[in-house]
Amino acid sequence: MIFVLKPAVPRFKIEAFRQQIEEQGFQTFLSTGTEHTVVCLIGNTAAIDMESIVQNNDIVEYGRRVTEPYKAVNRTVHPENTMVNAGGVIIGEGMFQIISGPCSVESEEQIIKVAQSVKESGATLLRGGAFKPRTSPYAFRGLHEEGIRLLLKAKKETGLPVVTEIMNQTQLPLFEDIDVIQIGARNMQNFDLLREVGRFHKPVLLKRGMANTLEELLLSAEYILSEGNNQVILCERGIRTFENSTRNTLDLSAVPLLKQKTHLPVIVDPSHASGLRDLVAPLAKAAVAVGADGLMIETHNDPARALSDGAQSLDLRQFQSLMADLKQRISFEGKQLG
Amino acid sequence: MIFVLKPAVPRFKIEAFRQQIEEQGFQTFLSTGTEHTVVCLIGNTAAIDMESIVQNNDIVEYGRRVTEPYKAVNRTVHPENTMVNAGGVIIGEGMFQIISGPCSVESEEQIIKVAQSVKESGATLLRGGAFKPRTSPYAFRGLHEEGIRLLLKAKKETGLPVVTEIMNQTQLPLFEDIDVIQIGARNMQNFDLLREVGRFHKPVLLKRGMANTLEELLLSAEYILSEGNNQVILCERGIRTFENSTRNTLDLSAVPLLKQKTHLPVIVDPSHASGLRDLVAPLAKAAVAVGADGLMIETHNDPARALSDGAQSLDLRQFQSLMADLKQRISFEGKQLG
Amino acid sequence: MIFVLKPAVPRFKIEAFRQQIEEQGFQTFLSTGTEHTVVCLIGNTAAIDMESIVQNNDIVEYGRRVTEPYKAVNRTVHPENTMVNAGGVIIGEGMFQIISGPCSVESEEQIIKVAQSVKESGATLLRGGAFKPRTSPYAFRGLHEEGIRLLLKAKKETGLPVVTEIMNQTQLPLFEDIDVIQIGARNMQNFDLLREVGRFHKPVLLKRGMANTLEELLLSAEYILSEGNNQVILCERGIRTFENSTRNTLDLSAVPLLKQKTHLPVIVDPSHASGLRDLVAPLAKAAVAVGADGLMIETHNDPARALSDGAQSLDLRQFQSLMADLKQRISFEGKQLG
Amino acid sequence: MIFVLKPAVPRFKIEAFRQQIEEQGFQTFLSTGTEHTVVCLIGNTAAIDMESIVQNNDIVEYGRRVTEPYKAVNRTVHPENTMVNAGGVIIGEGMFQIISGPCSVESEEQIIKVAQSVKESGATLLRGGAFKPRTSPYAFRGLHEEGIRLLLKAKKETGLPVVTEIMNQTQLPLFEDIDVIQIGARNMQNFDLLREVGRFHKPVLLKRGMANTLEELLLSAEYILSEGNNQVILCERGIRTFENSTRNTLDLSAVPLLKQKTHLPVIVDPSHASGLRDLVAPLAKAAVAVGADGLMIETHNDPARALSDGAQSLDLRQFQSLMADLKQRISFEGKQLG
Asked: Could you give the CA distance from residue C6 to residue B324 in angstroms, rounded to a whole number?
């Protein structure tokens, strides 16, 4: 249940109202929009007399029951689009951002070369994995701390904000200077990690798990928002199905559906979705058209020698050529890159 | 294995060559492109000495082993895009066609009203179900022969070529004046039906089964082509996955992948894929961007009272507004509607 | 909605009651158990005053609303287990039957050799495909009419009732002497075929489609029963999932769930489910334990040379050894083979 | 690649051999069976001349290439069944163990009551969740440290070894007195956690992820074994499919397939697989028959009031009755409980 407050209610009155509600045994949280503040109740609210609360509290404009299990991420609770500030680059609300870079940071030369090239082509954020989740214990697992250091060096060289994946909460201190913390598909339901990034002060890029429904994705985002961090970007990256000619099946329906249900921005990763270099461009174009707020595209200076995910990485020239095309499409949609 | 013939080989020499191959125990078929004719061998060709055949037959330019199990639909065998002539409207190769109309033909008034409206909005073919496959035996199953008659009346009124679904081969005589015979998802592996439409003289719209891989779809098309009918349009309409917020999961990766592997045109049905009216527009836009050759979109003059699939049907005004947008996108892609 | 009649109501009174209901615009059908006859109504019964019908018709014991979309197959409507008489062998209700034989009938020698051997090992019905649905148009498709003839010869030699697959309704006249008509997974939603076998006078073995829910399987059975044929056996044979180490994923939960929801017998096909010879025995044992009414197991006199499905076929000795084990398990469950 | 050593080779010779191999740039690990020790090489071994290594090292009996990506868990590398010692109870190799208890530890009274009852019925290990992964941040998440304390109290009262789930590696110190550490389905690919439990000295129960293949499950187990802990039990608990009448689809084929590929014991959890109380008994029976080494079954003293998973929990009387049946089945299979 939510109570939408009248405009310009003083803070002390809001707190008094929350306290009154909490004394009845509910948790509450505030969702603050540009015009309205909303008080949201968590718990079994079936027995609450909503109308009498509205009548007895003159700061309340109206109440509404929220039937979905997710509250803070719910567009009903917070109708305006959330804008995420990723190191100065805005994701959401009319902007369209392109995150690009290698699957793994492999060396200083590699990450800086890729960073400079993708920036020149028009990418607005840099990705690069330092901690890599790998199916086999014997595969390359990233450069760890050194990878983070090199990524930050590439940021310094190019000015691009950086996105990189965290694998467990003990790594958080290493992410102090990272602009966006990525939670990968396999960790989408690592609930303790979600809570911890919810208490941290950095934007989070939350990827959909390969067997998770959209409702589960929204509830995982709810873990983060319910701890106080509303800077969350959702990412569709393909789900696991019976079809075996692609690595995963990209579910582009997820984009308009998520944007109906939540105020959070939604981006698309066509590289992991397909696992095939040739599909990255057509799927990226489709993602722009379907209404996404951005793309995450793997690029490598030498895909044939990449230590991970080479088969799905574009080389720098392919990325440049794709960007030229995407810029026109972003304009066509009335959105802005940068 | 295929043998690509030199240009302008006289027919009798081709037939002599085929006969020579068939005497060695193989089936053959011809695939005729604008420049080259290809002789394709079916059977276990492992033991054939391809090079000596090339050297001993001066009509042969070169030979190639085709490793995929599908031959006639294979782009290796027939590199040019196939154009399907659907009652005068061309599908494939730079054209983009939009098939629209109600799930079921319900009455003369309904089908003519919808046909006139979608034509005015820019649709280039009319759809309407006369024989409806329904999960429950107690649901509305279509008007049958009367539905076909009404559809043909709408064709006469508007000039739009018509597409309608066949459910079994005994119905074929009723399809003499239909422009495109649709084979639905549940019949994609009804192999006897595929053979029969392969012997019929009408274009076939073959929908992907909800649990079928792209290779299986291509092999089902191969059934039709191997009987002599190469006027086949493939249709992606969503696959069955664990995600339950949409009716099916639209697999847009299928479009560029199919277009790599086959010369047949590929269209997309966002209505059945999503089952949700609000998703039809964004998915239609994505389908244009991903490289499809057309769309199939359900429309109804009164969706709330539709006898089937109302929840996913656009009303006539929504369709008109979507068409205005799609026309710009089709131009953007350098394709032509009509 | 159903009305359960009092015992021993004369036929003419039942017909009068049905007529009275049908005059209100509903279809009805009778479901006849050993003690009670049930009149079942099809259509939107929301507005019917059930209680007043019970009070005004003294032949009615009580009424009940049936919320599931399937009626005739519903255990609520027909609480006793249905027994199917397959050429003298009873399937269901305390019996456990084993159908065995080759994927395809390949020759007289082969089918008779296999039939004699599986009979000796304890199989109670013989299977053998004459019309084979094959993914590729170039694969072996069965001996057709000749296959049926050979199967009937094997029946004559051994006395085993025979089960074979139909692919379309035009083949029905060939099935006059077949004991059980099989509808394969790919035809589970070939609704016209379902209707036709519903009007035919032979038991039907209906396999679950590889992407079909249990509710859809029950509705396909409903097609057959609603045409008057209640001699239907359901068969779980694996569903399509992301797991690729088996051909399909056998869903043994389907057995107890189906037996809760319907009165029809349920058997299991571990051969098609797994596609792997080594898994047939453990899955067959599990099927006995989970409560199935029978098994369908592919056997071949020479699996390495089988024209179809060799990799999943047991040889005759492996089948003999499995049968020795299964007989003990069938006894353990208190069921009877034969 | 593996090298199987001759019997009774002194330790120093083994170490010298490993060092020689590692100097060529490979990792190695030892797998010690009752008769043979095996040296396993990790890395790209394509260029190694296996035969010359065998000839030049007289402690080596023979070499073999291991094509699967998993090595330490591979039955080729370690042919004997692994027996896991879970607080004195042996899992694997002719034993059949039953783990039972509530989804969550809710109170001292509850866990002790359930523990005493399931012990009396014949369960051989006690389960109870202290840290609960929940889809929603607002659901009951367990009693945490207090839950562990109560579980250990129940262990003291009944003598049953205890199994409980860990959610992240920072919790490990709390698991010092726990007998088996469970890694849940959502954490199957939490690779950092797998490494940490691989370095800990406790048996691990590793559940299959709901969208993970068997090969991925084996590779996750490989993470644990490669760190030195070979006390791993695999658990099939259902995978996510399109079927929605059960919570998951139990994949019983996984049991015989896993037992072919690995030496680790495999158990089955019918409670989470089905999510339906009525299916637990038939699926448990099937799991015994299919060759599992044990079962994990949720029980509760008052399922209707359970704080989690009540719908799939048996009450204590239902469990008692199921155990009476299962004991006979375990004997039938020639296995031993306890």
From this structure: 64
What's the gap in Å between the CA of D257 and the closest CA on chain C? 7
User: Which of C251, C273, C332 is closest, CB to CB, to D243?
Assistant: C251
DSSP tag of D82? P
Q: Directed axis angle between helix C145-158 and helix C108-121, to 10°? A: 40
For residues A224 and A197, the answer to whether their CB atoms sit within 8 Å is: yes
- Residue ranges with strand state E in B137-293: 162-166, 180-183, 204-207, 232-236, 266-268
Chain A: give the shortest CA distance to residue B304, in Å: 21
In terms of phi and psi (left: phi > 0; alpha: psi -120 to 50; beta: otherwise), the region of C294 is left
Q: Cα–chain-centroid distance for residue A265?
A: 7
Please report the domains of chain C, with CATH numbers, ordered by start residue: 2-64 (3.30.70.1140), 84-332 (3.20.20.70)
Give CA angle at B75 (B72, B80), nearest 5°.
105
Q: Which chains have 3 or more CB–CB distances shorter than 8 Å to chain D?
A: A, B, C
Q: Which residue of D has its CA nearest to A226?
A: D137
Mean pLDDT on A157-185: 97
Rounded Cα–Cα distance for residues D290 and C272 (Å): 17
pLDDT at D46: 83
Secondary structure class of A19 (helix, strand, coil): helix
Q: Can you read off the two tokens belonging to residue A166?
A: 């965290």
Task: Give the residue ranges of DSSP H helices in chain A.
Answer: 11-22, 50-56, 108-121, 145-158, 191-199, 214-226, 254-261, 270-274, 277-290, 316-332
Any idea which residue has 């407050």 for tokens?
A5
Interface test with C, best of A210, A212, A239, A242 (most C CBs within 10 A): A242
CB D17 within 8 A of CB D39: yes
Q: Could you read off the pLDDT of C218-229 as tens digits, one per residue?
A: 999 999 999 999
**Interface of chain A toward chain B, CB-CB under 8 angstroms:** 211, 213-215, 239, 241-246, 249-253, 255-257, 260, 273-274, 276, 278-279, 282-283, 285-291, 328-329, 332
Looking at the predicted structure, is the pLDDT value of residue A302 above 80? yes
Task: For residue D228, count other CB atoms closer than 10 A to its CB.
Answer: 12
Tell me the pLDDT tens digit for each residue of A72-96: 999 999 999 999 999 999 999 999 9
Nearest chain C Cα to B188, which residue? C186
